[in-house]
């Protein structure tokens, strides 16, 4: 989705973080640590306020607790994903793999279980911001536009279209796509993808790849259950084929 002129101008200032947590002590700790690192911070104590502030303030990153008083955090995620690709980092005491997959499947970019170290969380915030940054002209691959079957990827504009219609990808989905189409026909290992997209501490989180590759296939493959373009090499990694 194109950003407004005002939004583009705001991006020249500090990175803005929306903290969504109904625990006052946790919210206060996050605000103190974020402001100490020169982030601008807004705080929401429930899902409705989070959606309103996201629309009004256009944050660069959202830190989202799942246990909110008025709605589940996954509902907030789905509400956000209806109109924005802003990176969302889930903060939750829910540790089960199913809970993580559910949040990732709804569009989360990362999942941090409570309790967590503040330095680690800040590193994840920085990584999320980097993933969401558009390519500069000097960084854009020479190819520019990649056409594969029914979909087209414009690497410079950071846009994807399918059958003439724009396809909305989250920053994480885009980063995965960018890496894969940058090495057509070649196997990209699970470890490499996890390290490049999420960072060196994620090299065992293969469930992240499974969820996000499924989402890319649903959005771009003509038959996601029999992919033509995003090929799994079991136990090894993935390949992109034209």
Automatic annotation (TrEMBL):
Residues 143-242 bind DNA. Keywords: DNA-binding, Phosphoprotein. Transmembrane segments: none annotated. Residues 143-242 form the OmpR/PhoB-type domain. It comes from the Bacteria. The modification 4-aspartylphosphate is found at residue 65. Residues 16-129 form the Response regulatory domain. InterPro entries: CheY-like_superfamily, OmpR/PhoB-type_DNA-bd, Sig_transdc_resp-reg_receiver, WalR-like, WH-like_DNA-bd_sf. This is Response regulator transcription factor.
